[in-house]
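Researcher: I've got a protein sequence and the SMILES for adenosine-5'-diphosphate. Could you write out the 3D structure of the bound complex as structure tokens? I'd like something to compare against our soaking experiments later this week.
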Amino acid sequence: MNHAMEAATVLEVQGVTHYYSSGLVRSRRAVPALNSINLQVYDGETLGLVGESGSGKTTLARILVGLIRPSQGKVLLNGRAILGRTTRREKRLRRRLCQIVFQNPHSSLNPYLSIETSMSEALASAGVPRSQRQAEAVRLLASVGLDKDVMSRRPAAFSGGQKQRIVLARALAVSPRVLILDEPTASLDLSVQAGILNLLLDLRRQYGLTYVVISHDLDVVGYMSDRIGVLRRGRLIECAEAERFLAGPERPYSRELLGL
Ligand SMILES: Nc1ncnc2c1ncn2[C@@H]1O[C@H](COP(=O)(O)OP(=O)(O)O)[C@@H](O)[C@H]1O
Ligand SMILES: [Mg+2]
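Model: Sure. Here is the predicted complex with adenosine-5'-diphosphate in place.
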């Protein structure tokens, strides 16, 4: 399906530029981590963003969920600016619409909390009544392929792939519409990467999610995406329907990435 043609925009990036140094110490030659990014994410699609290390992928991911405020430009979630609004209600609303999953599941989970406690906290933040949290946690864990036995254990008991499943279940606890996946399989053994990618495809279908999948690995992005964008040195140099992109991208750099 061509999502770009028919679906509503859920996430929109308008003229985003980001410098890590503060305005006062920024030198004239300072290179922005992101430079004039314009981007739309359509309801129900998977937008893949590919780029080499240091191209600005994680910076953009963090800006998309409001963890970093860009030096210039703005991000709209469901047509509303997500930055500049700092009330707790706005933050909660944003978290419920858009969740981020990072590369390293080890650092995403609190090592001292049982999986049940982590899940309960997430469900509580989504307003799920206490009496329903346990059953809901079991249901979410089942949807990522984990048995209810995992509830009583702590993160150290699990492999990287299992931890990433737990992180996904927790992200889904708030019933988000959009998941930002920053190198979701990069820290995992090759043998478990495909399992996670296929799980992500299942979850997308099951929950009607919209994804932004970010990776240095064109195979990952090519496998998952309806549209593909290329980041290079902080600029989005190309963004096209996946099929068209994979058949023959416009920019020489993209062709190089594809080995053409
Ligand atoms: N916290 C930070 N402070 C200063 N510079 C940073 C910080 N995080 C990233 N950078 C720089 O910003 C650029 C983009 O980084 P990043 O967004 O992490 O790229 P990617 O995820 O594509 O590897 C790089 O040059 C990186 O060194
Ligand atoms: Mg990164």
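Model: The pocket of adenosine-5'-diphosphate (ligand 1) is lined by residues 20, 33, 51, 53-59 (CB under 6 Å). Residues 89 and 116 are 25 Å apart (CA to CA).
Researcher: Great, I'll pass this along to the crystallography team.
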